[in-house]
Amino acid sequence: MTAKTDEFFRKADQLIAAGRFIDGKGWVPATSGNFSAKLSDGNIAITVSGRHKGRLQTDDIMLIDSKGNSLDGKKPSAETLLHTSLYQRFPDVQAVLHPHSINATLTARLFKHEIVLKDYELLKAFAGINTHETRISIPIFANDQDIPRLADKVDNYLDHHTHDVYGYIIAGHGFYTWGASVDDALRHLEALEFLFDVEIRLHGVTRL
Question: Which Pfam families match (predicted)?
Fold first, then answer.
């Protein structure tokens, strides 16, 4: 068992607050979703499997190592590998958030392989973007209960798209986004939710 530090409890508090905000928006129904934050020693605070994200307590945040192994005897999400692979790939990433929202679900149904977001002022909510005159692509992957296989598909995509990737959607499931802090990841999440909603409505209008 690894002792939990003051930093762990600070990150846990941030994840708890994020969970309440995200649940308040209706983006993590039932016990869906999972959240994590990286610690300075490389270990990771992550939500325990099967907990309601709007009612998280400190005991609902557990400690894992960089490879996803439990350090406190609790059970992490089945999708832990999707978190740890992002931390391993992007050294600047300090938080990963995964909601199960209506907009992400509909987006995958409508756009199939990717959704392109361009010329929106809100794109400036993403780290490194300072103009609306830009575009980002959010890839869409088929859902898969084999998480290592799904993680390999995501890694293969990221191997060939090394810049300006801010998230990805799992069809019929939800989406992942990340940032340099819990607040940064939450800002990306909220911006993506808004932009998914706009594109869904625009798609419906243009089909009339």
Answer: Aldolase_II (PF00596)
**Binding site residue list for Zn(2+):** 98, 100
Kindly report, residue by residue over 166-175, the tens digit of the pLDDT: 999 999 999 9
- Give the pLDDT score at 207: 56
Distance CA 78, CA 205 (A): 38
Residues 68/81, Cβ–Cβ less than 8 Å = yes
CA–CA dist 148, 80 (Å, integer): 10
For residue 26, the surrounding DSSP H or E stretch is none
Helices (H), the chain: 6-24, 80-89, 102-111, 147-160, 182-206
Tokens 């939450």 map to which residue? 186
* 101: CB partners within 8 A, 6+ apart: 25, 26, 27, 28, 174, 175, 193, 196
Residue 206 pLDDT greater than 80, yes or no = no
Pairing mode of beta strands 135-141, 167-170: parallel
Hey, how many other C-beta atoms are within 10 angstroms of the C-beta on 150?
A: 19
Question: What does pTM read for this prediction?
Answer: 0.94
